[in-house]
Structures are given as C-alpha cells and as structure tokens.
Design a protein that fits this description.
globular, 6-stranded mixed beta sheet, 8-stranded mixed beta sheet, 14 strands, alpha+beta, 6 helices, 31% helix
Length: 290
C-alpha cells in the first residue's frame, strides 16, 4: 500500500498542470457566496459579517478547536471605515456531492484608527459546508500574514486534479480513510521528515501557506521550504471529514516545530482523492499559537 501511495504521488506530480480550469456551476455558486460575504463586510464590518456567514457550529483553532461564533461575539463591533477588510476567492474546489468546498485567495486589512494605517496582506483559506437549508456557510477560516499580496491566476480557477475519485463507499467510510491518511502523513513527518513526507502526498499544484512567506506551490517548493524551516517537526491529528461523495475532505490538528525555530500551533489540510482511492494534500496551512 505504501508503495502504491508513493507511486501515485510521483505520477500525479509528473503530469502537467493546465490552468485555468473552469468552475462547475456548483463551485461557482460557492464562489459567488464568498464574494457576497466579502461585500457584506464592507457594509456590516468584520465581526457582524463573519457572524452572518459562519456556521453556528463553526470552529476557531487556537490551537485546539473552540466555537468560532462565541469568539466573534466577544469582539467589539467595528465599522468598515475603521477596520477595512477585503478579500477575494481565486482558487478552490468543491466535492461532487456539493456538500463540502474550500476557497483561498488574497486578503488585506487596514486599521484606519491607527496613527499610521498600514495595509496588512494575507492569504486566507476557508472550509465551507452546505447547510440543511441549502446555504453555504464557513466552518473553518484560517489565514497567514504575507509580505505582499499573493499572486494567483486571473479570475477564479478550480484546483486542478486528474482522475478524481468516483467510488461509492459513502461519507463514513471515506472519512475513516481520510483520517487514516492524515495520521499516516503525521507519522511519516516524524519518521522521515516533513520534506519527504509532504512530497509523497502532494500534487503539482499543491499549496503550503506559512506566516511571513509567499505561498509555496508544488512539491519542489514545498520540500525546499520544509528542509529549511521544519527540519524537526511533529503533528497530531484532531479530526477529519470527507464529503458524501468521498472525493474531497479536510483535516485539522496541532503541530510542533523545534528546529530551526521553536513553534507550535494548528494546521488545516485540504485533501482530494484519486480514482484509486488514495488521498492527496492540495492545501496545507499552519497557524502558530499566539
């Protein structure tokens, strides 16, 4: 099984990536929801717009999972004219079952109450769940500060992934295999190092988001980052969820880096599954504890 996973990863890495890919109508509906969310922030401000578009069971990773709505309600309300926050979805994907999706893109925050307002740039990633009433709402929102706005292909692009899973094992079974994949990756990070472990589980378009750095895209860039910045790393899985169609899901947990710089925090991974049933990381975000 291990050899099959490694071989599958190498084959996927070797295949050329063609961008852009046109989003499906279902994915476009999720993108439109994110854009409406961003527009709402200009009217209601950060706290109240987030409360409107976050699911009631949404979580904040600090680094353990805590209810996000409670943390949001504890924040003071600030008008957009005081705290300006803008963002735009530029890349993402949705499950075939249209119940789980994810989006990422650039963000900017400007605190106009500061003596010298300075833009703070970021790269956000949001996990979305479709609610029983049919609306899309954010379940996890995680981002990193970056020195400049991250670049993306023009417009919106669907994350490229060839030979997507089309099996029928159901949500529960798929979630079980996804949780195993997440734990296996964490075990591999401890045993073989982050650079090698990530290379075995990522595709040509996979993204790694870390604070203070431009996003690393592709196995070579991700391995280079891991070699230089995560020589000694460990991680522990907390939870995972796959879509009902079994082709897409997410996981989250905690991590520790001791070399070259000591750091602890939370991670979120987005996974896509290939036709053989193997899971691959298409996005990995780490948020250090404050």
């Amino acid at each position: 099984m291990k050899y099959a996973v490694v071989l599958g990863a190498l084959l996927l890495i070797a295949l050329p990536v063609r961008l852009p890919q046109t989003p499906t109508p279902e994915l476009q509906a999720l993108v439109d929801t994110e854009r409406a969310f961003a527009r709402r922030a200009t009217v209601k401000g950060l706290r109240d717009s987030f409360l409107e578009y976050f699911a009631e069971d949404s979580i904040a990773l600090v680094p353990g999972a805590e209810p996000a709505p409670a943390r949001l309600r504890a924040l003071p309300a600030q008008p957009f004219s005081d705290l300006e926050i803008t963002w735009e979805p530029r890349l993402g994907d949705i499950a075939l079952s249209n119940d789980i999706g994810w989006l990422t893109g650039p963000s900017t925050i400007i605190d106009h109450t500061a003596a010298q307002p300075v833009p703070r740039f970021g790269n956000y990633l949001s996990i979305w769940r479709r609610q029983p009433d049919g609306r899309w709402r954010v379940y996890i929102d995680i981002g990193v500060n970056v020195p400049e706005l991250p670049t993306f292909e023009p417009g919106f692009t669907r994350m490229p992934f060839r030979n997507r899973y089309t099996g029928q094992d159901g949500k529960s079974a798929a979630t079980g295999t996804l949780a195993q994949a997440d734990q296996s990756l964490n075990d591999r990070i401890s045993d073989a190092g982050a650079a090698r472990a990530y290379a075995e589980r990522m595709i040509g378009a996979s993204r790694l988001h870390r604070p203070g750095l431009r996003p690393a895209v592709g196995p070579d860039a991700i391995a280079a980052w891991a070699t230089a910045n995560a020589a000694s790393m460990s991680a522990a899985s907390t939870a995972a969820e796959a879509a009902a169609s079994g082709d897409l899901g997410y996981s989250y947990g905690t991590y520790t880096v001791t070399t070259p710089v000591s750091q602890k925090g939370a991670y979120v991974r987005v996974w896509t599954r290939d036709i053989s049933g193997a899971w691959f990381v298409v996005a990995d975000v780490a948020q250090p504890s404050r």
